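Limitations
The structure tokens in this dataset are predictions for the assembled complex, not deposited experimental models. Users should treat interface geometry with appropriate caution, especially where small molecules or nucleic acid strands are included. An illustrative entry is reproduced here so readers can see what is and is not provided.
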Amino acid sequence: MANDKKLVEAITSMDVDFAQWYTDVVKKAELCDYASVKGCMVIKPAGYALWENIQKELDRRFKETGVENVYMPLFIPEGLLQKEKDHVEGFAPEVAWVTHGGLEELQERMCVRPTSETLFCDFYAKDIHSYRDLPKVYNQWCSVVRWEKTTRPFLRSREFLWQEGHTAHATAEEAQERTEQMLNVYADFCEEVLAVPVVRGQKTDKEKFAGAEATYTIEALMHDGKALQSGTSHNFGDGFARAFGIQYAAKDNSLQYVHQTSWGLSTRIIGAIIMIHGDDNGLVLPPKIAPVQVMVVPIQQKKEGVLEKALEVKGALSGFRVKLDDSDKSPGWKFSESEMRGIPVRVEVGPKDIANNQAVLVRRDTHEKVTVPLDQIGQEVGRLLDAIQEDMFTRAKAHLEAHTYEAVDFDTFTKTIEEKPGFVKAMWCGNQGCEDKVKEITGATSRCMPFAQERLSGHCVCCGKPATKMVYWGRAY
Amino acid sequence: MANDKKLVEAITSMDVDFAQWYTDVVKKAELCDYASVKGCMVIKPAGYALWENIQKELDRRFKETGVENVYMPLFIPEGLLQKEKDHVEGFAPEVAWVTHGGLEELQERMCVRPTSETLFCDFYAKDIHSYRDLPKVYNQWCSVVRWEKTTRPFLRSREFLWQEGHTAHATAEEAQERTEQMLNVYADFCEEVLAVPVVRGQKTDKEKFAGAEATYTIEALMHDGKALQSGTSHNFGDGFARAFGIQYAAKDNSLQYVHQTSWGLSTRIIGAIIMIHGDDNGLVLPPKIAPVQVMVVPIQQKKEGVLEKALEVKGALSGFRVKLDDSDKSPGWKFSESEMRGIPVRVEVGPKDIANNQAVLVRRDTHEKVTVPLDQIGQEVGRLLDAIQEDMFTRAKAHLEAHTYEAVDFDTFTKTIEEKPGFVKAMWCGNQGCEDKVKEITGATSRCMPFAQERLSGHCVCCGKPATKMVYWGRAY
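Predicted assembly:
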């Protein structure tokens, strides 16, 4: 059993050092690894399979709302990036520049896309002529590059994978509707599929996307009480359309600017899955997104009939994503490994079980064991996976609620931020000076103005002036 | 009807100017468009949906053979690219170089991956320790950049989408097996799904991949008689392993180098689909890969009951990828548009059809019409799609065979290349000088040494020296 312990011992306890625990899980669960290129990741099979499942489900939900997938170039000529003033100011300091093609210096340097608003706008300006060409509801799955100084696997890396939707509409109302619709697609996806509860709301002007009129966000709360922005949806109004000259002939033949949106969700969300559901034994994956949902582990597998029965059990579970671990490792090692990888259900089959025509099911999330008759194993595993999915969401939701505080005065506010990791709800006057001050003193930022507003008091928690907006504040990744 | 003609008139006839016909189809079928970045494409919804179907089917076939998907970084540090001598010589002249990250100059410049052998090798060197870690059978779906001077949509662009598989094995035999296995996966996919017949064979040393011991290829023949390399699979032996130090401890504890392969198929294959199946009315898509398989077009749709019946028909065809064109365009325009987009079957439903409880099915490939009873429309459409798929392959295969010639002397050889576009089979001595001479005089290159060898004579078609290899020669895209 010495070997069995090794795998687990290598993980730092989350209560001792959460950051190190995170790094350990990422590495031991073989989700990703560092690459030779500083700040870039190698996403390994276990991590990429997770991303594939996320893509499949999210893409299906997108297409149900009329989204079409396209692919835009990787490069943005410098002149194109500069067309929208706020946008270039936001992104230019953190892009990678290509200056040479083959042996020749380029006449105009190009950046590797940090996001593709400018490319979509350039395309729409050529492609949209009449109201008949609208709406355009395009999306692309791709990688983007932002030259970050400090990086962490999944959470912040110089290159990451994401999808970016870019739409063009005839009216401001339609653009607003699409902006909110996609935020809700993200929120529902997170809650229903990833078991990640989120707060839906609007970013303040300080925190909104470079070039947007309004940015909406879903904010999740990690196990350590820090917030993670998990998906955003932006309404651009006609700002980009004016900068790029994207006009259409309306039914009355007048020339109008389009109204645009964009929205994105990235591999960052894998970080949220790890930090919300994981524990000291490693990853805990929600069944709906787990690449392997059930691991069958034979006990005393060299005894006659055990491996055969284990294979039979695997066959009976073929409606799920099931694997059988018939390697020559010890059962204890297999248990640890299966737990480290977050596989929702483990099925143990040994000589005693076979004699009693039963198997033992072990939940990854609670470690509970139940013994079930072999002839009912399919329905029992199905029931268990459903229960795990639901319970994981319920627990995460309870954690979010238990770590959401209120403050009506600045002392309570700063003390809560300092002592009670989580969200703090507080009123805000709308002045950026107060946001700056909060950040400077507490390190917390305004996460969002939630759609579900409450009136905690009539005064800004920071300056005491009249306030009508309630804001979620918190320290964030 | 003036409008109906316009769409078709805009296409150049393929017999008049094949290159222009190709460009017209790409544009009119809305597959892709030029981007602001010279030599890069915007892949539009119709083109990307085709790629998504290709990905889905190919990925499924990969996974059946044990392939796991991963994601490697976009960038390759210059020092890493230079580790394998032949490889860097092959690729360095055509890569895009990143020299600045944000506002700072990089200490070591990086290229945007033209292919990822070096990244996978760098990773494998760290990740492979023991025979237990083998084989690694990884693949990634991504975009790559090669700074080409002349570009054409799908066929040759500075950025393109592809998949690249990279494997590491304990033995040379296993690597060779995997190399051939993946070539056969490509060939079967092309023939069974894309209705694209291919010649399977090995590249000559002159034409093989930079750094490979052996390159295998599938070669397809376009409608104009030019060849298109449609997928390649490389055996690297232990060359990269020695350059990167990828070693494993064998069962006997000796330290061994791994044996590697790589294999790729790109969006170029969309060019093959266009140029093999297309006609003067536009794209013709094989049913298995067509994003829309059936287009229902109501005739006199303003007449009572027509649109309702058309919707009913669409419902009856819900087992297929079906659309209904209920726009206010004329039926003639709708027919042209559906043909331009290559939709395999058009279903016409008008008042006369409704009165007779029937519908008219029109094949895109042959323009044949059949009238079928409405209550059998599902099975009739299914039968028709199967027939179209099969007939398209049969026709393409007949075209390939009819345009494959033989030559045993150089005069016949050069005359055939000049006058009869297609493949020319001829014997070759194995000397690169003869390949160079053929290329210089005829513009043709050795496409492959087919697995199915024939002995046409005992002498090289070029120099007359003894020859044992039969080669397919041809002009190529």
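Some entries come with short summary sentences. For this one: Chain B touches chain A through 51 residues (CB under 8 Å).
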